Structure prediction request, 1574 residues.
Amino acid sequence: MKSDADYIELRCRSAFSFLDGASLPEDLVAAAARQQYGALALADRNGLSGAPRFFAAAKQAGVRPIVGAEVTLDGAPPLLLLVEDRAGYRNLCRLVTRMKEGIAKDDVPAATPALLAEHATGLIALAGAAPRADLPALIDVFGTRNIFLETQRHLEAAEAHRARAAEAQAAAHRIGVVATNDVRYATPAQERVYDVLTCARARATVDEIGRRLPPNGERWLKSSAEMAALFADRPAALRASRAIAERCAFTLADLGYTFPSYPVPPDETQQSYLEKMTWLGVGRRYSAGDPRAARLLPQVRKQIARELAIIGKLDLAGYFLVVWDIVEYARQSGIMIQGRGSAANSATCYVLGITAVDPVAMDLLFERFLSEERVQSASNVADRMPDIDLDLPSGDRREQVIQHVYAKYGARGAAMTANVITYRPRMAVRDTGRALGFSEEQLARISKHLPGWIMDDGTPLATFIAEAGFPATDRRTQLLAEIATSLLNLPRHLGQHSGGMVIAANHLDEVVPLEPASMPGRVIVQWDKDDCADLGIVKVDLLGLGMMAVLEEAVPLIQRHEGVDVDYGRLPPDDPLTYQMLRAADTVGVFQVESRAQMATLPRMRPERFYDLVVEVAIIRPGPIVGKMLNPYLLRRAGIEDVTYPHPSLEPILKRTLGVPLFQEQLIRIAMVAAGFSGGQAEELRRAMGFKRSIQRMNDIETDLRAGMVRNGIVGPAQEEIVQGIKSFALYGFPESHAASFALLAYASAYLKAHHPAAFACALLNNYPMGFYHPATLVTDAARHGVETRPVDVTRSGWLCDLEPAPGDAFAIRLGLNYVSGLHEEVGRRIEAERARHPFASLVDFQTRVMPGAAEMVTLAEIGALAALDPRTQTRRQALWQVEAQGRSGALFRRAEAVAPATKAPLPEMTEGEETIADFRGTGVSTGPHPMTLARAELDRRGVLRACDLARVTDGRRARVGGVVIVRQRPGTAKGFVFITLEDETGFANAIITPQRFQRHRPMLISANAMIIEGVVQNQQGVVSLKADRFEVLTAGDGAVRSVDISHDFH
Amino acid sequence: MRLACVFVPQLALQSVLRREPESRGYAIALFDHADSSAPRTPASPHARVIAATEEARRGGVRNGMTGAQAAAACPTLRKVCATPADVATAQAALGDLGFAFAPRIDQSGVEQGRIFFEIGDLERLYPEGEAAITQALQARAARLGLGVRVAIASSKGIARVATRARELAVVPRGGERGFLAPLPIGVLLDEQVDGDKTKPRGRGSDAPPSDAGAALKRWGIATVGALAMLPAAEVALRLGPAGTRVHRLATGVDEEPFVPQLPADALEEETELDYAIYEIEPLSFVLRGLCDRALARLACRSLACAGITLRLKLDPRGLDVREILIAAPTREPATLLELVRLDLARRPPDAGVVGVALIALPARVRSTQLDFLRPAGPAPDRLAATLARLAALVGPENVGAPQAPNTWREEAIAVAPYSAAGASRAPEPSARSALAVRRFRPAQEIEVLMGRDGPTALRGSETTARVLIAAGPYRIRGEWWRPPEEDGDFARDYWDVHASDGAVYRLHQDSRSGRWFLDGYYD
Prediction:
């Protein structure tokens, strides 16, 4: 211990008490280190969420972290429990887990006396600073040696009286008294933050909350000397704190976590079995007859042998087998699965079928995934474990795999990781503003000006608040900015991570408290995935990916209708048609390369082989964009700019990417070469690029980076270029292996689009919502590729969209009943099933057998889905006329009416525009002509161009184009510029709008469904856009155009 | 029978504009929200635009927008809310308009802003024809501050539809079907031309339930004539009774009865003066007459006056509208007059008064349940007059019952409005609060000599003594969100000291200034 002072703080809450503590565990540790504490206890309310970060920070600062939690008791004041030994830790974890079992998410958990008694071993209880009625019962549970009453001095008038009474009670029961300060924040300056959090908890403003705030700000972490002065008359109480601290020897270094081993045959070890499976996999992946395999095989064998040796040395065979088992389960269940991230660097993962990228063929760096040096130099256990993320089709199929893991490892053996939701600008301003009495309207106004994420460029919150029209001179506005800034990064509540699962060999609830998740059948651990990783708990990410579902669904579709078996593992490499399509930016629906920004890059990038696609996927990311890597790369690729390197020593690293760093691996290697980073430092950099707490880490690393480069003689602009390049990656960038995994999916989806456009579009439609575009755009795009989409028809449509033969050897998409708004799935499925029994004979037959609701019938009639059912329902209005009569007459008369002669509806037939409106209202898409065709004649008269005509306009000339708005975007990397994409019957037109113009026309630009945009055409390297300066709501076209609301806004 | 229908579109908005005529010509949006218990303020997040002036609509304001959306669309927008009284007054004024032309009107009440009356007798006054009557009605309404649409037809339903179609309309006898045929179907479906779709649906509204309206749209029925062409039985089969009613109306058949009603509570008393009055005394003379007449009329129907709206017409132009609240309904002219006088004395009108309107709010006399164990309190109306008089003397913020605000600031007190009904017995003193502090207001600044463990001596205007025992400090900090000049952001260390003069004092040191204050002594 650092200091001989008698006092150690034992009652201390962090912000992980969620709205009841104002400091991060790291800040508390820093304050403790400043105050020369040798140890510090952290005891958050009903949980250990802050414990891993507390442990990590304390270890670094040389403060011994004592684990504890304050638990709510049933009908009695809460009790602070400190962990003495491993048994105590196990008990605390299980106690908290049991307390939270079976209660709703927002209910306060409470321990019953029986539960407490069951889990008291190894725990020391601090019972508060007031006499308590249940003390005798608590003494029975803990024994006089393990329970203490407290004495606290916050200079509050009522406290002295309570303390005297508590001391008297302690003396009467012969238990000890210990001094504590009930710390809620690290430094006095955080008092206001705590007050605001208290208001947020109480849902009150500062003006209303009154005495629910503490009377003063004395609950900060005071030094031993200050506490000694306060308790000068109670030296024994001070000494007791130190004595308790010394008893609490347990730390999280001693978690007792073990990873489950894979059940192997009796004569096998984990390693031998893995080796066996791996070599079997080599045979499968590199079959004998394949010339490419023959070429690679010697290298593959060498690589696999090397990897297996490292895996054996690091004792990771069990981990690989467990992941392999999940992959095998998915495969056997017919669920598509693919590993992503750095696992794609491993040949072992490739041959085991965990990943789909061949790292040997692609020359990927295995060390990015796993290396002996990395493990040796790793500063904590987390880095020893390789990270394997698995992509699954989103939805039920992914859930099936998750449930398999639960089933395999037991309810107490597997859990999802938590996701600690921290304060970001909007929430910070909202909570602070509400507490300070700002109206919702004012806060909404400020919110609009705030960035969603913490400002990377260091712009203070006050600037955004001032932009929203709140003068910085106003006291409350100043306070708002100041306190909201302090709230940033503090945890607010615990959510569930989207796919991270942790698995344990023994009881996971003895390692970390578990909580029920809001989704039934799921439990989550109280730690987030990084904390789990930090403490060596192995995590497998099971992530849902819409495109996987699309690819999976397309296979049987193509097989059934086209008679072609598509095997994504054996797609022809470098397929010319696919690359031609990519070069033309014809990529609506294609994974990762369909966004406006990607489409604007593809014609300049001109991808010709797979690696170009890897670069394309990686380059449109905030890291490379902010790091100004995009343009140099494209210019060099086009031969306009020479390939140069910041330093000659970096040429081998950057050669593949023309001297421009694009991947995380390259930046790590640059740091190692240019700045002489050690394995450990490089590892720290790798984590900084992957972590959400990265900006701070990145700043810490910058100093080392610069010093290292100076040592290697890299100074001036070269140094600056390298530092900026690396720092910008804190924003977000891809590792090469991850980009390659994604590029595989991009290639597969592009291949599908090029060769099986109908099946691809059909699968996309069935998996909406996903991707970038509204189904209406997907339907229009399919039409441009010669794929007809046919309307919903109850005599043909299934619940999902499907393919039908079309003239020639083409296929058309039959829109599924799932697109009919308001139609229940069970009704849709019944239509399918009844039709399969025998076809519907008439409208009455349909109604009698399917029994749809009246509203469902009306919608079906309105979208023309009943046309083929009955002569009386051939047109939409005819159908409506019949359906509405049937709707009122009830089943009794239907039979009679069925034989009645058909009366022609005295209604006008729908116009084309009306049909379009009905289609969009009833299904969200229209299978008829594009709505813009209805406005075309008028637009032609006015000289408004079609989207396809824009490419023929000379660069710099003015033009006008009209269309339905399909995308509005204001990317964080674009300095406030707004991008709007219009769609018409011929394609897309992109417009760029300056921030000033956007502000001026804001209401119209954000609300109009269709518009005419005028501006200067920019036609460069095949990328056409309009620098827009005039805007007009598009009113032509019978109202149909205006009713089409399909824009994907500001995502 | 020929009927006139007078309709005030956007009644609520118009009622606000009547109250604030100076706002005319500006972009103004009226807000309301579904939750009737929530306070009516445009700032409420649930408030939505329900009506807007033409200027605001030109600025992009639309019904259903929130306050923030509307302000974003039209930065100069003024946001207002209508009180029920505003609407009621406008409705009453509309009734007055009717009674100015006919002895009996139909103002069923379910459909605000619309009245019907027979025009049979008016033909002699307006020999030019019915169109002249509509113009006269519109002109008269404008003088009342109401913009109206007027239609004359042979039945209520047709007249109502005609007001939706035209600003001024005369539907000739027997020409109903021809008049209606070209009109858009929306006029039958209660879609008002001005976009105000907020009025309640009920008896007297011919609009079919929304599903029938939606069905007509689905069928592509664009005009009333197209609907009239459909076979009646087929429409009835599909749309039920509501559809039948609309269909009949479309064919010009309407049997909705005219239900004449008595004049509404004539609670408004108004007088025009020949010359401007600048002093309260002569004005009181006028007011007494108004009060007497209003109360006499209320008394006939066993009602009392629960509040007064006083509308003073100022010289040369302008209105001074003030509402005078009364704690309990009264029939005493003297009390009423006293309250009005006090209000005028406190806030005299800005200019000479050339006209006075007194609108008395009618209410039943409240019977008070007396406490069996307590003496009867003062008569509610007397109490109200007394409180009003006190408020006029010392300011309304200084009249009421003392309250301990919820704050750590020890000396804080607040004044809550006094209510005889709410006054209860003082709580039983608890055994634990036997010690009381007698507090100096304001706290007296003193000099204190500090030793190692606390104050050792104090000197001030009340006492000069040595400190025998000192307990403390007790630190109170808080209200950092208010500036110090508003008593906020305070930080004090309190001490309780037993002084050599025998008293136990409470004192504090202001941590920021270092100054000491004597707060009081223990009793």
User: Anything to note?
Assistant: Chain A touches chain B through 48 residues (CB under 8 Å). The mean pLDDT of chain A is 88. The longest helix of chain A spans residues 876-899.
